[in-house]
Amino acid sequence: MILPSSLALISAALFTGAAFYISVGEQPSRLALDDRAVLLQWQPAYRRGYAMQAPLAAIAFALGMVAWWDVRGWQWLAGALVMLANWPYTLLVMMPLNKRLMAMGEADASPATTEMIRRWGTLHAVRTVLGVIGTAFFFWASYR
Questions:
Q1: Which is nearest to 19 in space by CA: 70, 75, 89?
Q2: Rounded to the nearest 10 degrees, how much is the dihedral formed by the CA atoms of 24, 26, 31, 35?
Q3: Which residues, other chains included, contact 137 with Cβ-Cβ below 8 Å and sequence gap of 6+?
Q4: Residue range 3-57, pLDDT digits in tens
Q5: The domain containing residue 86 runs over which residues?
Q6: ∠18-15-66 over CA atoms, to 5°?
């Protein structure tokens, strides 16, 4: 069955592209702003990014599992599990910081807030790496 495997690769690549853009484009640009603007830019960007990336990781996992079930290549399973790893990593490692930042108001912005968002960027880079690894497994599986 070619469709689930192709869609798994596409979903993983979309997730990875979005994560990469955030890591190398949006985050460095955001950190060039003043403390207030950093927070005010991060909050809506986080909401939109989460709404896009969370489903992409889940879809890539599910389709990777279907491809593994159909084709039985271990690379599909590995890629699916790496894409799934984004969920517990985000919920357990990143979510406490995300919630603190989302609860802040404009008046709370300070150099400490900017430092928290800098730390968020470092944590987010792990998601980018997970996306690259998952996509690479799917790509490898597609051409084996």
A1: 89
A2: -160
A3: 75, 76, 78, 79, 82
A4: 889 999 999 999 999 999 999 999 999 999 999 999 999 999 999 999 999 999 9
A5: 2-142
A6: 170
Instruction: Record the pTM.
Output: 0.93
Could you give the CA distance from residue 30 to residue 102 in angstroms, rounded to a whole number? 16
Find, among 1, 24, 5, 7, the residue nearest to 127 by Cα: 24
Q: Give CA–CA dist 128/5, Å, rounded.
A: 21
The count of structural domains within the chain is 1
CA atoms within 13 A on the CB side of 112: 6
Q: How far apart are CA 87 and CA 101, in angstroms?
A: 19
